[in-house]
């Protein structure tokens, strides 16, 4: 028979069970709505080193919003660390999309199985690994930027460039070390016009200014850019046809619509030409039934609306030092409408000037049907540049990142072109590592972007060791 001392009295047993239960519950991570709400929208470590507003004119209240992230692992002194400037497209879209969805140090996404909850996480493909990275909401009226009046919103690339020059000049004056840093202006899509515009404007103004007032422009990079629209709009039919997305009858119908857009552009009927191009893209969308023309491999469109949801939160605005009265949207219909007549105007001559006096990178995601490889190569062939024949006859080299096929690179002199496989319109989103390697090697003139073949092998060994 067992002794009565072998079993605890009922009260002690209940107390012991209760204490064990408390211990177990204390180990469970808290995931209640109240606890989730207590987490910061933007963790402190995700915030920019500097952010706020840069004036575009001494006589106006209009200003460009900026967010600056310093290099995470620079290999040069602060005064010589390259500075990348990112401009979004549209026209009228915010560079905060590039910041929080593409190439910034932290990217937004939704929590698995909970599309309503957003999180921001470190981006292993961030472009500020080795370089400083400056995002500008351009033109005024876009994103968090402020247009003092609708009349001040730019209607052409000259005014866009004038505002950008003033804003960038104001930024480099914030810190004496910024002045000597080499500047590379980058961007995608409609920034295929913004980037050449500010680059061209800078080179022209630098020639008139004393050295102390010049911007240290070292090069420009354009991703999937709309640069010479009259040439590019004529490529959609052949591109879609040879990609197997439309048949020959549809190709003929699309070519007819393209011809109308070209005709209106050549007549200088800018508004109708823009409408005609929109009609071409709508027709192509209807013919293919694709989720998005920005990437014909995608089953769903890009989730850029996450950026809007993130930055509409008051806490996020305060953390970024943005004007809290602004209702953030990823793209501004008002700015897009003002620039409507600018859409079909070419800036190819600006690129020609830049490639003569600077360095130029043109890169495209292979799966983009709007401003992709065929579209860009069509206008590049028509460039008036002393080195164009050498570029067109240059070898198109197979490009690998960490041993895996990443795409193709063609370069000659100051012009480089990169095709990124597995990517659409938003290259850094689709292929973050390839995009990071591309921009770093191009800026530093390494790998396939180097002058000599001898430099390629050490770069690849270095990449594998990282």
TrEMBL record:
A GO MF term: serine-type carboxypeptidase activity
EC number: 3.4.16.-
Protease found in the keyword field: yes
Signal sequence bounds: 1-27
UniProt key word Cell inner membrane: no
Keywords: Carboxypeptidase, Glycoprotein, Hydrolase, Protease, Secreted, Signal
GO annotation, cellular component aspect: extracellular region
UniProt record, GO biological process: proteolysis
Coarse class of the protein's main subcellular location: secreted
InterPro entries: AB_hydrolase_fold (IPR029058), Peptidase_S10 (IPR001563), Ser_caboxypep_his_AS (IPR033124), Ser_caboxypep_ser_AS (IPR018202)
Top-rank EC class of the record's enzyme: hydrolase
Subcellular location field: Secreted
Family: Belongs to the peptidase S10 family.
Name of the protein described by the UniProt record: Carboxypeptidase
Lineage of the species this protein comes from: Eukaryota, Viridiplantae, Streptophyta, Embryophyta, Tracheophyta
């Amino acid at each position: 028979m067992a002794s009565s001392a072998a079993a605890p009295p009922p009260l002690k047993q209940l107390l012991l069970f209760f204490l064990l239960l408390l211990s177990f519950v204390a180990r469970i991570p808290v995931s209640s709505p109240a606890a989730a709400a207590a987490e910061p929208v933007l963790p402190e470590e995700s915030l920019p080193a500097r952010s706020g507003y840069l004036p575009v004119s001494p006589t106006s209240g209009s200003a460009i919003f900026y967010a600056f992230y310093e290099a995470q692992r620079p290999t040069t002194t602060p005064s010589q660390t390259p500075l990348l400037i990112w401009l979004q497209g549209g026209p009228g879209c915010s560079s905060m999309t590039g910041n929080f969805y593409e190439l910034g140090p932290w990217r937004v996404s939704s929590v698995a199985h909970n599309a309503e909850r957003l999180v921001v996480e470190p981006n292993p493909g961030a472009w500020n690994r080795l370089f400083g990275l400056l995002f500008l909401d351009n033109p005024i009226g876009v994103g968090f930027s402020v247009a003092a009046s609708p009349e001040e919103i730019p209607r052409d690339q000259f005014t866009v460039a004038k505002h950008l020059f003033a804003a960038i000049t104001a930024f480099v004056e914030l810190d004496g070390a910024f002045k000597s840093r080499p500047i590379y202006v980058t961007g995608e899509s409609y920034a295929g016009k913004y980037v050449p515009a500010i680059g061209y404007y800078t080179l022209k103004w630098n020639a008139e200014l004393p050295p102390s007032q010049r911007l240290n422009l070292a090069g420009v990079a354009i991703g999937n850019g709309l640069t010479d629209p009259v040439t590019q709009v004529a490529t959609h039919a052949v591109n879609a046809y040879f990609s197997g997305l439309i048949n020959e009858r549809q190709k003929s119908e699309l070519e007819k619509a393209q011809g109308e857009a070209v005709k209106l552009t050549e007549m200088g009927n800018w508004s109708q030409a823009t409408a005609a191009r929109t009609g071409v893209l709508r027709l192509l969308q209807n013919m293919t039934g694709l989720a998005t023309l920005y990437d014909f491999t995608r089953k769903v469109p890009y989730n850029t609306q996450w950026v809007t949801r993130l930055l509409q939160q008051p806490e996020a605005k305060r953390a970024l030092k943005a004007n809290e009265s602004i209702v953030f949207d990823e793209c501004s219909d008002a700015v897009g409408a003002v620039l409507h007549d600018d859409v079909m105007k070419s800036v190819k001559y600006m690129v020609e000037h830049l490639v003569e006096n600077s360095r130029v990178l043109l890169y495209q995601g292979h799966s983009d049907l709007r401003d992709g490889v065929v579209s860009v190569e069509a206008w590049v062939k028509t460039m008036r540049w002393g080195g164009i024949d050498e570029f067109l006859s240059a070898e198109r080299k197979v490009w690998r990142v960490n041993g895996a096929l990443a795409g193709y690179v063609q370069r000659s002199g100051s012009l480089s072109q990169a095709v990124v496989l597995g990517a659409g319109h938003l290259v850094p989103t689709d292929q973050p590592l390839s995009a990071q390697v591309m921009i770093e090697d191009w800026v530093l003139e390494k790998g396939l972007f180097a002058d000599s073949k001898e430099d390629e092998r050490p770069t690849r060994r270095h990449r594998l060791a990282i």
